[in-house]
Specification:
alpha+beta; D-Maltodextrin-Binding Protein, domain 2; Dipeptide-binding Protein, domain 1; Dipeptide-binding Protein, domain 3; 3 domains; five-stranded mixed beta sheet; 22% strand
């Protein structure tokens, strides 16, 4: 049972600003490490925005990108491949060290020139165009890219390039003059940033405790303390909310909402989250090498029925790998993914499918409704003649050559098709790197035109070509944008902001407040 951290006044319903200084969040998952550079998980995304800053900020109240000064107060393209940034003076890290250009160069180059294996992966899948950061003076840096970059602000606003302190990090283990891999491992358990809250306590997989950082360069944090505790079971999270042991709880499935909303002391908020729950298929598995079998697996899945049954119609079923948040590059007119069981049966016959067992691997609790979706999908496969079963695993098997199909997610890491589809399915990206997806010279050429063109129309044409490749030789099926909900005490005013990546728990100024009784 959760330890009650709130005062009696807080648990009973807040009536003063002072009582509103602390909250407890019951979260479905808590990360095993906290390092914004190496993390790109749905779980990890919750935790960085409160404690770390990027050079270029964003108005998260808006869907469209509105860039704002953050740790950099201004930025200018001084050459086609070089950007100069002026740094904010007077910024202090949580350990008391002042932030200078040295910290910024260190933070960026640990990603741009990565040799720590987790950073290498993140560098390759989203930052491969960036060559280096250089110090001009104590409050000026320059960043160089290999090819002219159409997404400068977007890629300098990424979680992975949040700024960390050089001296502190190098001093965590070994030689204090050298950034060693062990330093980065140690940093992930004792993180330090420049944000409005410092991480006062972190127990991997159990809890994160934030405390207000009084020397923050921006607007003062509204909370003195916020504790995020892992409570894996939905029923336990709801119970914690009802008993006052939690003030906000995450990942509430739609079928639980009515029960919560009948309680006059509670409220819920929700949205179709900017990510896709997906089914991935191993194109290199001996039983799945024929693309017609994978086409059949995809065509057999009635995603609208999954939406109605699991999400009460609140999820969004896409026609292609596209999100409204992409702005001008939102392309719902494409029909990459469809439901056609008759065509699925015909393709299986054409391919000479011999009844081989196809296994759908699923995490037990990581994704809301994930296991239920897996069970329903295998039943749909059986209806078209696929011999299917579900295998429940609590570990990632996406790099296992024996993996056939499994549930996964494709989040929107930033508001561009590159930031969702591209991060996962680019040439040499994670999917190809783990051996379950293949690209060729033609695919790479299309990708280059999509990734680096400064013309929106040209990018749309190229993206449509990529989607056609995916349709003909499918490695993935986006099932839906899940409708994720959060529940909270009635007097807590908080909701996910449209400009954030998925699942961010934003407790900065202007993001959370409390109604007085």
């Amino acid at each position: 049972m959760l330890r009650l951290l709130l005062s009696t006044a807080l648990a009973a319903g807040l009536s003063t600003g002072l009582a509103a200084q602390e909250i407890t969040v019951g979260a479905a998952n808590v990360s095993d490490y906290l390092d914004p550079g190496r993390d790109h998980s749905n779980v990890g995304s919750q935790f960085y925005y409160n404690s770390f800053d990027t050079l270029i900020g964003k108005n998260h109240d808006k869907l469209d990108a509105e860039w704002q000064p953050a740790l950099a107060t201004e930025w200018t393209l001084v050459e086609p491949k070089v950007m100069e940034l002026k740094l904010r003076e007077g910024v202090v890290f949580h350990n008391g060290e002042p932030m200078t250009a040295d910290d910024v160069v260190f933070s960026l180059n640990r990603m741009y020139q990565a040799d720590f294996p987790p950073y290498v992966v993140r560098s390759r899948d989203r930052l491969s165009n960036f060559v280096k950061a250089e110090k001009v003076d104590d409050f000026t840096v320059r960043i160089s890219v290999e090819k002219e970059e159409p997404l400068w602000e977007t890629l300098l606003n990424l979680q992975q390039v949040m700024i960390i302190p050089e001296e502190y990090t190098k001093g965590l283990t070994g030689d204090p003059q050298v950034a060693e891999h062990d330093d980065f491992e140690a940093f992930s358990l004792a993180p330090v940033g420049t944000g409005p809250y410092r991480v006062a306590e972190f127990i991997p997989g159990e809890r994160v405790v934030y405390e207000r950082f009084d020397d923050f360069w921006g607007e003062t944090a509204p909370l003195a303390r916020a504790t995020v505790r892992q409570v894996p079971e939905t029923a336990s999270r709801v119970t914690a909310l009802k008993t006052g042991e939690a003030d906000i709880v995450t990942n509430i499935a739609p079928d639980q909402l009515a029960m919560i909303e009948t309680d006059p002391n509670l409220r819920t908020v929700g949205s179709a989250t900017p990510l896709f729950h997906v089914m991935i298929m191993n194109v290199n598995h001996p039983e799945l090498r024929d693309p017609r079998i994978r086409q059949a697996m995809s065509l057999a899945i009635d995603r609208d029925l999954l939406n109605e049954a699991l999400w009460l119609g609140k999820a969004v079923v896409p026609s292609t790998h596209t999100l409204e948040e992409f702005g001008e590059l939102y392309m719902p007119e494409l029909t990459t993914f469809e439901y056609d069981p008759e065509r699925a049966r015909a393709l299986l016959e054409e391919a000479g499918y011999d009844g081989a067992e196809i296994v759908y691997t699923s995490f037990p609790t990581y994704y809301t409704n994930g296991l239920l979706a897996a069970q329903a999908i295998t039943e749909m496969w059986q209806e078209v003649g696929i011999n299917a079963k579900v295998d429940v695993q609590d570990k990632w098997t996406g790099g296992d050559p024996e993996m056939m199909a499994r549930n996964w997610s494709n989040p929107m890491y930033f508001s561009d098709p590159f930031g969702s589809f591209g991060v996962m399915w680019a040439p040499h990206g994670p999917s190809e790197g783990e051996g379950r997806f293949n690209t060729d010279a033609e695919y790479a050429d299309i990708w280059e035109r999509f990734r680096f063109s400064s013309d929106t129309k040209a990018r749309k044409v190229a993206y449509a070509e990529l989607m056609d490749r995916i349709k003909q030789d499918p490695p993935v099926l986006p099932l839906y944008r899940p409708y994720e909900s959060w529940a909270m005490r009635k007097d807590v005013n908080w909701s996910p902001k449209p400009g954030h990546i998925p699942y961010v728990l934003d407790f900065r100024a202007g993001s959370i407040s409390f109604a007085s009784n």
